[in-house]
């Protein structure tokens, strides 16, 4: 059967997926879109991974110098590729883990500090199950009573710092309050952003930190040349955005945009009606006058979406907004306001390159076939057959671990557990019409292009899977014994 599986995979079957493609969760025609909106960080501006090391090191030093954490933490450096986006952290159990769309912890992906927690211990910690009940799960914005979900790309250094500090405390037998530790690290990371340190690093060396500036320029100009209206809503301050956009797009970048809103305080911008818009002058100083209209070329601070809709009249599916944070950028816009949404998922490019490898393709196909064999051969109940089944189950587990490790040795793919979608994937499908690695992917499509999602078969309407092809569509086990039940 293994030979059949390999023979059924034609030469050149790899490299079928394009890392620069746009993938659709929902049918959407760009021809119907008149207005394009953008977040700034990790949407218009993509940053190099060097930034994560800077955030980690600075927050680590804040913990030592201001929060009086042990100086031995200074020996820890950022570990690129340790964590992935979409993980959950159980504050009271100090567990960082990957959870699937059905609220089950993927075994083998639970870490306390920098060390994996045995599967048996994870199951015991949750009362004999891998399942996390709904009331313990994070809320609509990823923040629950004890479980926090890390959905921001900027959260990668935070997860690594959290794991490093716990690792140090456990290694030195230091008792700690789990809630205080989580809050201290969260506050230290927040300081890096709020006090403007990150902005200063990027502004000093934009060539080093900002990627794909030319492509951002090309996307925006192309849309304007096709008479599309553009707007920007970001939580970043104006001076930072202004310098970044001048670097990527040019000194007249504001001429491309109909609206620019900075320090918007998303996601509150989408839900809280109380904050009015304030105008900034060309130097970024606040003006006092009441805002009765949003003017092209002007810069606005704060505000709220309800006033934005009232003043612009931009509603419904003629608006397409792009952002990298599924909760802060996209969720409210899709569910409450009916805008079309595009998720920017930079990790997509790397994951597709892995999916396109021969090793992944063969491993996954054989795993599917082996799973089908396991399911169908359970009809044999003799001792020898049971032993064979155990061996097959072991082989299947080894293949699953292999495919997981191709993406990330600790946590695997951000999109899948062994077979189910991750909690991150579930939110991605729920909150975005389309998703892509960067906005530059738009350059590969006509401005009137229609995206059609593939009809993914439900389990009961599935076509022939690989295991069915290889076993000759063998009959359902115990079918004869079941006849009398009907």
- Helical segment count: 18
Could you tell me the mean pLDDT? 90
Biggest pleated-sheet summary: 9 strands, mixed
What is the first-to-last residue Cα distance? 34 Å
Radius of gyration: 25 Å
Q: How large a portion of the residues is in β-strands, by DSSP E?
A: 5-15%
Uncertain stretches = 472-479
Q: Give a count of the beta strands, DSSP E runs of length 2 or more.
A: 18
Q: Helices and strands: which structural class?
A: alpha/beta
Q: What percent of residues adopt helix (DSSP H or I)?
A: 25-40%
Shape: globular
Could you give the order of strands across the largest sheet?
A: 1-17-16-15-3-11-12-14-13
Oligomer: single chain
Characterise the protein shown here:
This is 5'-nucleotidase domain-containing protein 2. This protein is an alpha/beta fold. It has a domain at about 1-15 and about 350-480. The protein is about 40% helix and about 15% strand. It has helices spanning about 1-10, 50-65, 120-125, 155-170, 180-195, 195-205, 205-210, 215-225, 240-250, 270, 305-310, 325-335, 345-355, 360-375, 385-405, 425-430, 465-470, 480, and strands at about 25, 30, 35-40, 45, 90, 95-100, 105-110, 115, 145-150, 210, 230-235, 260, 275-280, 300, 320-325, 340-345, 435, 450. The strands form four sheets. A nine-stranded mixed sheet has the order 1-17-16-15-3-11-12-14-13, with helices on both faces. The protein has a five-stranded antiparallel sheet with strand order 8-7-6-5-9. β15, α12 (about 325-335) and β16 (about 340-345) form a beta-alpha-beta unit. α2 packs across α5 (about 180-195), α4 packs antiparallel against α5 and α12 packs across α16. The radius of gyration is 25 Å and the shape is globular. The two termini are about 35 Å apart.
